[in-house]
Automatic annotation (TrEMBL):
Top-level lineage group: Bacteria
Keywords from the UniProt entry: Membrane, Transmembrane, Transmembrane helix
Keyword Repeat: no
Transmembrane segments: 39-61, 73-92, 98-119, 131-152, 167-185, 192-208, 220-241
Protein's name according to its UniProt entry: Tryptophan-rich sensory protein
Chloroplast as UniProt keyword: no
């Protein structure tokens, strides 16, 4: 299973590169622009995938070497980690193919798998010995916590499931659900700094994009994103203080 984690960690950047070359169809940016929403982030935010893939690869190599090969916790999370990496990898060609419903199922599956791993690592005794694993999986789960809801919004627009001219109402509902997910997972992780940092990166990118977005309700959505970031920061500070 450790080897599968490593193989899947290699597959993610390889498939990402192929996706950007058009091997599976239009790249993610092109498709995203076709279905504008009130939850979309500025393009620069998605560069974080480079950091995610690098940390995941380093973690995957690390957990196959030395004493880590027999570490019980790393062995316990290995199946879920491999699943999360695999689902992340296959999401990219699915999105390029326009299979949005499949993408929603896949991205939430990846989120659940990697968030569970991050919770296990955040609550483990002597957590410093798992610092690389904690950092890699917390950042990956944190980004998916936002990306999953951006994916849902684009699916709604792509299939015209709800109004595409008056999107603020259902967008606020998605924001509310995403806020609950972020706060609950952060609570379970006891105020995870890495999780907070990547969430703030994404939320600020949404604020940046929406303040200049021509869609009706964009400014409101921008400030909601910023507000969620403030609440998440306060929660993290309180959780860290309580631990001390």
């Amino acid at each position: 299973m450790r080897l599968l984690v490593l193989l899947c960690s290699i597959a993610m950047p390889v498939i990402a590169w192929l996706s950007q070359t058009g091997a599976f169809g239009p790249d993610q940016g092109t498709i995203s622009d076709r279905y504008p929403t009130l939850l979309v982030a500025a393009g620069y935010a998605f560069s974080v995938w480079g950091l995610i893939f690098l940390l995941d690869l380093l973690y995957a190599i690390w957990q196959t070497t030395g004493a880590r090969r027999t570490e019980p916790l790393l062995g316990r999370i290995a199946p879920a980690t491999a699943l999360g990496f695999f689902l992340t990898a296959i999401w990219m060609p699915l999105f390029s193919a326009g299979l949005f419903w499949a993408c929603v199922v896949v991205i939430f599956g990846a989120l659940m798998a990697l968030a569970w791993c991050a919770v296990q690592l955040s609550t483990a005794g002597n957590a410093r010995r798992y610092r690389l694993a904690w950092l890699a999986l917390s950042i990956h789960a944190g980004w998916l916590s936002l990306a999953a809801f951006l994916n849902v919004a684009q699916t709604i627009v792509a299939y015209e499931l709800l109004s595409t001219s008056r999107m603020l109402g259902w967008s606020l509902a998605l924001w509310a659900i995403s806020a609950v997910v972020l706060l609950v997972l952060n609570l379970r992780m006891r105020g995870n700094i890495a999780y907070l940092a990547i969430a703030l990166w994404g939320l600020f990118a949404v604020w940046f994009k929406q303040t200049e977005w021509p869609l009706t309700g964009a400014v409101t959505s921008a400030w909601v994103a910023l507000g969620i970031g403030v609440v998440l920061t306060i929660q993290t500070a309180l959780l860290r203080l309580r631990q001390r």
